[in-house]
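For reproducibility, we list the full input for the NAP complex.
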Amino acid sequence: MTVPTTKAHLVVAAAEHNAGIGVNGALPWRLKADMRYFARLTSSAITASFPIPASHHQSQPSLYSPPMNIVIMGRRTWESVPLKFRPLKGRINIILSRNSSFKSQNPDLTVFSTLDDALAHARSLLQLTTVQNPQTQTTLIPRIFIIGGASVYTETIARPDCGYIYLTSVKLPADKLANTTFDVFMPPLTTTASLSTDANGIGQFRRLATDEIINNEYVVPKAVAEVCFKENSLCVFEDGYDYEYQVYEKLSE
Ligand SMILES: NC(=O)c1ccc[n+]([C@@H]2O[C@H](COP(=O)([O-])OP(=O)(O)OC[C@H]3O[C@@H](n4cnc5c(N)ncnc54)[C@H](OP(=O)(O)O)[C@@H]3O)[C@@H](O)[C@H]2O)c1
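The corresponding predicted structure, in tokenized form, follows.
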């Protein structure tokens, strides 16, 4: 397994039956445990042993203490976050929009008009936010998360620097299955288990085993796993919804 600390990791909750992720500009469900997982995963840095990996040498004093992860999202996802919760706290928020007036109307926000530029900026921040603690002999390494929506996921998944996909796979209860009309979808992943060739041009993915998810700091930091994976289970039943935390790794091309 690679250790992709500067890659772009996706976090998404999608319906198991059709990969639906959105309805009318909002989430299709309200899943408290999944929201907690999302918040903790995207807020927590990796705790690595000291000294830091070569790719993270810090040239200047840290700007952020504790270090902050970076979340990148499309303009509509930003607008779908309730006003009182945005910007997402404890994380550096970056928004994508091609519309120059969105940027001029929101001068306090960090807005980029291409994913390339947003990721270049995010990586420059990573250099500044990695924090070493010689006393505990640890290094805190922040990461970059792509948090939607559909076109941003699709673009990221096709990139060679796509890292993990943290997918919450949601089974809807029967009444919701009949009555939910999704209007935003995740692209299908081509997994090594399901197909031997890449059918959709986005590359191939390997689904991680439970042990690789629960016991690897570089996948899910221990502090997150301890709180979110009760009794080391990746499955949750909440409010009629059955869902499972899955992680996929992009295989190099
Ligand atoms: N289930 C989940 O985990 C999850 C996660 C996130 C979002 N969602 C849901 O998904 C829906 C929102 O997603 P969406 O797919 O409709 O919209 P979105 O991707 O959040 O936003 C689309 C907008 O982002 C900008 N954009 C996208 N890619 C860009 C790029 N490469 N460069 C520059 N700008 C770019 C454009 O903004 P401009 O039009 O301003 O140019 C575009 O119109 C909501 O229903 C939300 O609740 C669900």
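The radius of gyration is 18 Å. The chain is about 25% helix and 30% strand. Both points were considered when choosing residues for closer inspection.
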